[in-house]
Each structure stands twice: as C-alpha cells, then as structure tokens.
Predict the 3D structure of the following.
Amino acid sequence: MESLQNVAAGFAVVLEPTNLLYCLVGVVIGMLIGVLPGLGPAATIAILLPLTYGVEPVTAIIMLAGIFYGAQYGGTITSVLLRLPGEASSVVTVLDGHALARKGKAGTALGVAAVGSFIGGTVAIVGLTFLAPVVAGFALDFGPPEYAALALLGILLVSTIASGAKVKALIAAAIGLLLATVGRDAFTGAERFTFDSLSLADGIDFVPVAMGLFGLGEILYNLEERHRAVHAPGKVANVWPSRKDLKESSGAVTRGSVLGFFLGILPGGGATIASMAAYAAEKKRAKDPSRFGKGAIEGVAGPETANNAAATSSFIPLLTLGIPANATMALMFGALLIQGITPGPQLVSEHPELFWGVVNSMYIGNVLLLIMSIPLVGVFVRILRVRAAILAPVTALITMIGAYTINNSVFDVLLVVVFGAVGYLMKKFGFEPGPLVLAFVLGSLLESSLRRSLLMFDGSAAGFFTRPISATLLVVFVVVAVLPLIRAVRERRAAVPAGATAAADGSSDGASAKNREEESV
Amino acid sequence: MDGSSNGRPDGSDGAGAGGADGAAAVAPADPAQALAEEWAEDAPPPAGPVANLAAGLVTAGIGVLGAVTALGLGLGTLNQPGAGLWPLAISVAVIVLSLAQVFIGRRGGDGEKFSRYSWLSLVGLATLLGLVALLPVIGFEIPALVLSLVWMKFLGGESWRSAVLYSVLVVGVLYGVFVGALGTNVPHLF
C-alpha cells in the first residue's frame, strides 16, 4: 500500500505546473534534436546541464529524461522521410520506413512508429514501476565489495558492447578512471595529479568534462562534415495509421516492447542495440522475410517500439543501483550528483518524490510526444529547413556561456574547450567518448569501494570471492573480459570461411559508420 | 595495406546488427546491404595503421606519466592503501591496453583520416579559444558576434547577408536570455 501512495504522490509532483512545463520543454527539445541530424541526445543533455543548477532535482531530471526519450521519437521522422537517421537508434528504421515513404505511405510509417513508441515507452514505464523497487530492495544489502564489482562490470560492459574498437574503448575508460583521481585523495588528503594548480585541487568537475567531450567535441566534429544538402520534404499527409496497419504491426509492437525493455536494463544495452535486435527478430519471425527492406510495416514497428522501451528501462540500473547503463545515463548520474543526490538503492526510499516524480513524468511525456508525432508532425518536418551552418554557432555559444554560469569561472570554460578538442580528436582516432565519461563518473565510487573493501578484507583480494554477490559479479567480469580473447584466437585458427564472414561484417559496418552518435550504446 | 581490406575488421557494433545483416546476406540485391554499402562509400576513409600507432603511443605515454606520478605519491600496502596505489593500478592498465593496441590491434578501430575540411574544426577551435581569452576582458557580446560571423560565413558558407543578420539575431537572443531573463553573471559589455 505504501508504494501505491508513493506512486500517487509522484503524480502530484508531476502535475505541479513547473514540472509539467519542464517536461514539455524536455520532450520538445528531444523531438527537435531527434529530427536534426548531428547533435544527439547525449550532446544536448551535456550542453544543457548548467540549466539544471537553478531548479529542483526532480524538475531537472524530468526535463533531461524528456530530451532522451523525446529524441527517440524525433529520430524516426528523418529516417522515414529523408533516409537520414536523426538518431543512431533509428538507423534500422530507414530500411523499411523509407521504402514505405517511397510507396507514398510515409504517413503510415510515421504513425505506426509513433503509436509503437508510445506503447513501448508506456509498457517500459509500467515495468520500471514494478521492477525498480524490487531491485533497489535487493541492492540495499550491497556493501563496498559489491559496489566495486558492479562498477567494474558496468564499465567493462559499456566499453565492450559499444560500437567501435573494444581495446580503444577500454583505454578510454581507463583514462576516465585516471581523470577521476585528479584532486585531493579522500582517504589520505594527498594531492594527486594537480600539478600545484589551485583550480585542480578539488578535482575536475563532471560538467565541463561532459560538456566538452559530448557537446563541444560533437560540434567541432560536425563542422568538418561536408554539410549534406538536406531537402526539406513537402507536406506529410495523413499520419493516422489505419486499423489494418495497427493490426498488422501489433505483434511487432508487443515483441519490441518486451525485447526493448530487457535490452535497456543491461549495462551497455540501450536504444540502438534494442532497435537492431528487434529488426533482426522481426525478420527472422516473418513468413516471407524478403518483404523486409521493401516496406514491411513490422520493420518499422518493431525497432521503433523497442528503442523507446529500452530508453525508458535503462533508467532502472541508474535509479536502483546507482550504476549508469550507458553514456546518457552517466549524464543523468552527473546531473543528480550536482543536485547533491547520489543515485543508489536508497533513492526510492529516501527520495520517493524524485523517483516517482521522474517515473510518472514519463507517462505525461509520452502522451505529449504522441500528440507531437501525429497531428503536429508537419511542424517538426519544417525544422529541417534550418541550416546546420546557422545552428552550429548557436549551440557552441550556448555551451560556452552555459559553462561560465556554472561557477562564474573562465577556467571552467577553458576546460570545456580543452575537453572539446580532446573529444574531437578521440572521434577522429576512433575512441568512443562514452566509456570515458562513464568511467569518470563512476571513478570515485569505484576507488573508494575498492579501498574500503581492502580494509574490510584486511588487504586480501580473495575476500571479494567470499561474498556470493561480489563473487558472481567478478566471475561475470572475468568471463566478459576473457571470452572475446578466446573467440579471437579461435577465429584466427579457423580462418578458412573468412570470406563469408567478411561480407556479413562489411554490411554491418556500413550501418555502424552511420552511428555517429556515441550515445548509441 | 590491411586498412584497405575493410578498415574495421572487428565489426563490433551491436550484436543485433550482426544478426540482421547475417540474415540479409543471402540476397545480393538486399536493400539493407545496398544501404550499408552506400553509407560506407559516403563515410570518410578510416584513420589507418599509422594513426592507430600514434594514438596507442600517446595513450601509453599518458599511462607512463600516470604511473610515475602515482609511484611518487606512495603506494602503501594492501591493508593500508596509499594515495598512489589505485592511480598506479589504472595507469598500468592504460599502458597494457595501449601496448596491446600498438602491437596486436593496429588494424582495428574506426577513426577517420584528417581531410582538408579538418581545417574548419581547427579554425572553429581557435575562435572558441579567442572567446575564452576575451570573455573576461570585454564581455561576451563582441567575441560571440565575431565567432558567429566566422562560423556562419567562413566555416558554413552562408552569404554575408544572412551571416550578419543571423549573427546579430543570435547574440541579441543570447543577451536577452542569459543577461535579461536568467540574470546570470556572464561578463557583458553593455
């Protein structure tokens, strides 16, 4: 009963005018950046972090969450109409969505995607409502060894599941951990890596790092992209899906909801992987797989449902364990830390208004997005006429001024520019910034948990294996770390059918090359 | 050159993608494959083994610097870990992974070659640094206006007319929002 009261109290929080307004602002921004190719949700959230200082924690997270799941809706529009995915999680939607558009059924594709997204999102919120308190209750007994093991596993999974080179992602993660040690050591008081600079004595703030790597790095990278001439499409007619369309896609929507929900929870999972897995699953199930790519409605419904379900359920590890499952959730983690709230198992019991407020705001946000995606879709299509050349300096200037306002410090702005340059170079050399930011966020938790554990175990590392949960997590860690090595060795020995696999790899690489968004994780 | 064989041999994007394309590989005229190939052609060339080598050496250097500094901080014992123990452990991990990248994984990893368009990013970076330098001296309006003009006209290829028009508009709106509405302390001239 108590939990039901909390759920109801959460609705009261959402319905406060300020929170409703921020929810609306969040989903509109999410829709916009979803439609515009270039800037992804992680970059946008990073750039807007300074804006959250002045508001209540629950309001801040409601808005940031809205940007995240709103972008999943918006990314569909350009996939279908222009064959250009606005977001990495909408890449597979291009295949059948654009084929439908060419047949004059763009409205059907967009309508089914919107309805599917709505259902997937809603199913995932319900799942979140019931599953999150259970996980949090389970995790209340976690001590430092469990947290150390969990953080290690989370960083490893996010690094190895992300697109791109695994070793490079791991290097980025390790450097993220190293950056997190800059400043005064909490245990001994020694100054580490400060190079006698006063500005570094308190460590490097999360916000400039995130704004630089995700925000400015992305902006600088987009500058050199030859600006593709985007032709704004004409009017989009009739976005209301017919009853027949809905009936044909109902199976795909159901499967996409379930698949997306579970893939979203896994560390390293998330919207992009969920959408791709859902597409593969639909194609495998179909009686006539050759329809796919030529305008199969399930090929739109499945992935679009799954990416929304996953975007929502990826909040579960963050809000219940305090472990972000992907780069965007690492930004949410940072946003909560700014507000003086450490996400973890106590969050549900200690800040029920925050937890239920954010969860319930997603219902409202999804309804708003459904309205924006069906009757108002024409308005957002028109946004595509705004030229990238005009948008770029606007986002850059907002980032710079925003960075200054955090602490009224020019040093912070300089840090953002420096990390922006680093983020640009990382992209050019094939390092994902996501694992670095995630490891940076978890760095101090990981170090203090490890050191506390060592004190608990009297200096014996074997102590981790005396506790069932930390032992299990560490075994999983070792398996995840070692398995790809074994597989690589085996593949090298069995190099005979290499031609066949190379062809398959080649085609999936094309799709990954399109995944310019690092938050594709 | 192994870069030409594929550039990204590990194909390590999502597991689902592999599944989708594995199934797609049957028909040669598959739209999924056609689209992927079209995008691959469109994508900039990969950075190549030399860039990978350089990147690996740079990150290894960061690891060595971290390890040396960490040793100076004192390691303590496992019972009583010192300030340097954890940084040393990560630094060693950075070094080992970087060397693995240098020796084993040189052909792996996407990355992109620098092109003549990379100058645009460099110029962009320079204007940002200029803004940082001038911000405390003359406030944000003039540097922001110049930055916006440069980005729109020279980096973005807008006409003078629209660059001037939109730049003035953008700075005006930023002034209205950050100074007027939000009342932040961002240094401003006017």
Observations:
- Confidence is low (pLDDT under 50) at residues 1-29 of chain B.
- Chain B has two domains: 1-113, 118-181.
- The radius of gyration of chain B is 25 Å.
